Amino acid sequence: MKDYGYIFWDLDGTIIDSYKGVTRSVQYALEKFGIHEDDPKTLRRYIGPPLKESFHGLSGLSEEQADQGIEYYRDRYERVGIYECELFPQVKETLEYYRGRGKVQFLSSSKPEVMCRKILKELGVDTYFDEIVGASMDQSRITKEQVLDEAFRRAGAYAEAGRPRFRKADAVLIGDTKYDAAGARECGIDCIGVRYGFGTDEELRAHGVKAIADDLSELRELLN
Q1: Is the domain of 33 the same as that of 117?
Q2: pLDDT (tens digit per residue) in 60-95
Q3: pLDDT given at position 108
Q4: Per-residue confidence (pLDDT) for residue 177, from 0 to 100
Q5: Cβ(127)–Cβ(109) under 8 Å?
Q6: Is 62 found in the same domain as 91?
């Protein structure tokens, strides 16, 4: 496989197992509208896409209600849910491995950037990333494509700072869902999927991933 100089990492389902924090906060928000959702398969579908899309599409909330749902979600998530997560196995070792090989590593998540920074710092891996890029709180940057575009913009300044010049041909996104694979494809970079997250092989392959790794040990074998 290609020797990529830039590695863009998804967060939920790739770096962290955030199932409890996200789904419990979703349930909290939905309860405000009298919606009781206990099905694990349905709740898993809230992890990955922008929350407004999920509240509107999965729960049938109106556009206005979906916006309010995001506020309810954030109320619980910022107080409690942000701490209901853990690193997947071998994350620290893998980030350290690629740092040692001189790779530029970006965190690129559709979760709000301020939350990404808090989570990564709490888990002790924030310093492994050259940049942490997430969604904006005003929802002007929420999709994976928009987040990647912002990451590319920041990477564009690296050549002037003595870092490897950024080129899309030298970049890969590591993610677990179709939103990662589709976002990478739309932005013109490769994507490698991980099987331990919240997506499926079928969805990842349908959106053009180059390969799918069972775990981060296999990822290191695929992506030297």
Answers
A1: no
A2: 999 999 999 999 999 999 999 999 999 999 999 999
A3: 98
A4: 95
A5: no
A6: no
Same domain, 144 and 216: yes
Which of 59, 83, 107 is a domain's end point?
83
The tens digit of pLDDT for each residue in 6-49 reads 999 999 999 999 999 999 999 999 999 999 999 999 999 898 78
* Catalytic residue annotation: 10
107 and 160 share one domain: yes
Does residue 41 share a domain with residue 132? no
> pTM here?
0.91
Number of structural domains found in the chain = 2
| Same domain, yes or no: 50 and 92 | no
